[in-house]
User: Fold SP-RING-type domain-containing protein from Claviceps humidiphila.
Amino acid sequence: MDRIASRTLPEYQPPSCPLDESGRNALSELFSTRGTLVYEAQLKESTRNLGLCVGDLHERLSIQLERLRNSRERRLEKGTDKTPEEERLEKHLETFETQADEITIESEKSLRSVIDHRAELQDQIKVLSDLYTSAFTGSNATGARTSRGRGRQQARADDSTSAADENQEQIEPPISVASTKDAYQRALAQKKAEYEALTPHQRYALNNDYAAFKKIWHDSAAGEEGPPLPDASRWFRPDGQPVMTRPGAKNNTSNPRGSADAAADDQAGDDDDDDIAIAREVVSLNCPLTLRPLVEPYTHVECQHTFEKSAILEYLPVRGSVNCPQTGCNQSMSKARFDQDFQFDEAKLRRIQRAAQAQRDLDDVGDDDDDDDDDEDEDEDEDEDEDGGEDNDKDDASN
Assistant:
């Protein structure tokens, strides 16, 4: 019992004096990013990995679905029965589609949690920074008041040394000091209330990391010929739930949130199809500056135009700002704000990689066709040689 009692912390006592220099320095260390670098890096890496995992998952699913479609088309053309391979693939996809959609929804929920944690960390740093500024300003004001008080006391002492006791009684009363801990808790509670008052659209749809996740997921699931990603204003339903129905998965009974949610998502998908009927998204995989395929694509968070990193850095001036080099865009850009205004475009890079792989597959098919044509030509030549030999034999026999 004595050992446990000795470990009990004493009751907190609010400060009776403003923070001195060492206290302010300690407060400065709390909000400096050095102490949170590892945590911030982990949150950032989690955000990236969630997007990459969902992208890989849906690319695999798209490949399997394409195989099944091709198998069905060949069977219908030939008028044959289902092959064991097609039946096996159908059975596999029944489970795979459901699992892919469930994992996607779980990943999206995890991403929103990561974004919430990053917002909380930023609020903590901001509150601590404000407290440091307030403590520093307050210490200067207190020092000035103390100096004025000492000056008045010295003046009265010069007039009459006999009034020293009276002057001592007239010293200004001590200034009340607010508790730094209480101020921190109040400010943090206010920040939390302000964040929770935001709509899901404001919290997530306007967040660059969430938008990147949606692009990777949508591009991987929809493919190159699929519909474009809907506008961010349609990423959440009126009840605040995200719209995460896979492109092309109409009337998806495997939706983990239930048939009502799936129907609402399908309605959003129908609206998207109406937009596609008007115009499809055209995505350029070349840099507007170099006119060559993108290798390290960086996209401006405001105008959404993408450039090769080295090219756009060379284009931006060392001082001042310029307009976006994309024709018709007036977005202001500067090299000083590159890290804040530009973001590595993982979705665009994956699209470039898919296009390159598709071209390689097409080239391989072309090479195989050329080999088949060469084999057919050789067979025809051999047949002609054999026919010619038979004709000669007949001529010799007649002679």
About this structure: The radius of gyration is 35 Å. Confidence is low (pLDDT under 50) at residues 251-260, 272-279.
